[in-house]
Amino acid sequence: MLNSFKTPQRIALIGGASEIGNAVLRSLPQDGIEEVIRFDRQTSGFDAAIENARREVVSSMFTKDLDVAIIAIGALGNQESTTEEANLLRVIEVNYLATAHLLYLIASKMVTQGHGKILVISSFAQERPRIDNFAYGSTKAAIDFYARGLSHKLKNSGVEIKILRPGFVLTRMTQGMKPAPFSISAEQAGKIGAKLLQGRSTIAYAPTILRYVAIIFRNLPEIIFRRLG
């Protein structure tokens, strides 16, 4: 349960090795936190691609009330290898199927307990398909769409779904890639994610200027957008 200061006491991070997810945790008020549960392949052996593993992890999270869940799993994939079926399926399986299933399972449990917040890490890449990341972007567009729809469905349930749309974040996942304009650190993205969890907004871009860049992206004529891409 939230304490008397309305700060979370129990938090789960799915994708415990995620630099953005951990940065969000560090940016939340620390005084009231009693327990943080992390799930990832390295420390707990959790494989998000396995359906039963997802069910077991969510069940273990709700032995007591859970205030906040951060879903920070993801696969960037190798865009140059999108013709390879295994690579493409992995990106779809982790970024959409596994994430949507986890979101559904966690939200259902939170509805039963009557409260809770879920942070889903989407991406600026979901705004419009680009030749260098369309496979990844398509999965982020799908989970973004699902999260928004579920958020509307759960209105007045006591459960809130928050969507963070980071741009290019300087992490291990993007190491070796050419940084895009408005690149930020995981710590900067984490601060925006924490503010989103504590505020009333449903969606936030990281950095916030991408909110306005997104409007331009969506409205550029296709012929101009392709030239830029």
UniProtKB/TrEMBL annotation:
* InterPro entries named among the record's database cross-references: NAD(P)-bd_dom_sf, Sc_DH/Rdtase_CS, SDR_fam
Q: Which UniProt keywords apply?
A: Oxidoreductase
- Keyword Kinase found: no
> Which GO-annotated molecular functions does the record name?
oxidoreductase activity
Q: Which family does it belong to?
A: Belongs to the short-chain dehydrogenases/reductases (SDR) family.
* PANTHER family linked: 5-KETO-D-GLUCONATE 5-REDUCTASE, DECAPRENYLPHOSPHORYL-2-KETO-BETA-D-ERYTHRO-PENTOSE REDUCTASE
According to UniProt, the name of this protein is Unannotated protein
Species, as recorded: freshwater metagenome
